[in-house]
Amino acid sequence: MNKALRMGVVALAAAAVSCATAVFNLGHTGDEVAAPSYVQTAVLRQGASGGEVKELQRRLKQWGYYSGAVDGIYGKATTEAVRYFQKKNGLTADGVAGKATFEALGMNASAKALENSGSSASSSKYTSSDTYLLAKCIYAEARGESYVGQVAVGAVILNRVRSSKFPNTISGVIYQTNAFTAVTDGQINLSPDKTAMNAAQDAMNGWDPTYGCIYYYNPAVATSSWIFGRQTVTTIGKHVFAI
Length: 243
What we know:
- The chain has a three-stranded antiparallel sheet, covered by helices on one side.
- Helix content is 49%, strand content 5%.
- The model is unreliable at 7-35 (pLDDT under 50).
- The radius of gyration is 24 Å and the shape is elongated.
- It has helices at 3-26, 30-33, 51-62, 76-88, 99-104, 108-117, 128-142, 147-162, 170-174, 181-184, 194-204; strands at 215-217, 232-236, 239-242.
């Protein structure tokens, strides 16, 4: 083989490797390699907010289902856009973005994270009495907060149930000595409204606006200096959520 022909063969081989690499990269998205920073491992519905909602809106807008602002706020327009997308793609048109909707939108990391978290079945271990008690605590502690804020309080209680630092039942967490003001002052005995019941169910279904927090407090009325030393994760309404 002469020198010119040999160089040509080498060039063709290099091009083939380059082409194969390009094809491989096209077939493996970032969603499959590592979960993007926006993934929150939760079902998304009206009232949610954050980077995952923004990504949802971006994809819906790109495909012509959504015309609003990509602002990360899951409002009525986003709900309607999700419902429209679901209807067009043969999904249950409930306006709630769960595993099937994430997969249809190509949000594979969100779908996988949700599957791994087991949030779609997380409420199965709780009884109706657990749900009612959780709703009572939400209503007593946060009835003046937004819906997201009420779900957040429920999520903190459930995060405590899963934490080795607290009792492993909802009743144990709620009635732990001096854990909740509403228990101390008797407001826990108030009957929860429909909003609090829905918030309890959403928390049990895996929605955690606090990203795993096990503490919350209202800085305007908190009297314990200890709580101010906890690491703040987010603030929703009047409540600061911390770990």
